[in-house]
Amino acid sequence: MGIKLRQAEKRDWDLILDLRNASYKFFYKQNEPISHNEHYKYMENQIKNNNFHQWIITHNNEDAGYVRILDSDVSIMVDKEYQNKGIASIALFLLEKEAKTLGIKKLVALVAPENKSSQKIFQKNNYILKLNLFEKDL
After folding, report:
1. Alpha-carbon distance 32 to 87, whole Å?
2. How many whole angstroms separate alpha carbon 58 and alpha carbon 87?
3. Which InterPro entries does the annotation name (predicted)?
4. Domains in the chain, please, with CATH?
């Protein structure tokens, strides 16, 4: 399978926005689709962060998804058309190689309890569940 990572660039921000808005229900902080302006403002801020690294997942030279590391937190988003084909696991492996070259020693994945497919990906790739996070809005 021709899965590769390429450095994400500003020209990819609309793709990333589409992926975010298609997947937001599984995100910890984003609980509704975000606007183009909000997304671009977020991206402008993040690219200044030395602990933010991002790549586009390609499958046979077609854009298939997005991975990023923010601090040590890993995020993977795969376009619906490319899901359930093992792409996320391969992308995670490639991201780990990139993380090692960046000197990152530990990765963490914050996965929503209802996101069973992401849980399986991380478990299958030897990530260990360390704690449950309980919270309450007051």
Report:
1. 26
2. 9
3. Acyl_CoA_acyltransferase, GNAT_dom
4. 3-124 (3.40.630.30)
Could you count the other beta carbons within 10 Å of the beta carbon of residue 76?
22
pTM higher than 0.70: yes
Complete edge-to-edge strand list for the sheet that includes strand 3-7:
3-7, 52-59, 62-70, 73-78
DSSP lists the bridge partners of residue 70 as 52, 73
Percent of the chain with pLDDT over 70: 97
Distance CA 21, CA 31 (A): 10
Selection from 60, 78, 61 nearest residue 15 by Cα:
78
Distance CA 136, CA 126 (A): 30
Q: For the chain, where are the alpha helices, taking DSSP H only? A: 13-23, 36-46, 87-101, 116-124
Torsion sign over Cα 38, 5, 25, 48: negative
For residues 15-48, one letter each, b for 16 or more C-beta atoms within 10 angstroms of the residue's C-beta and e for the rest, the string is: bbbebbeebeebbeebeeebeeeebeebbeeeee
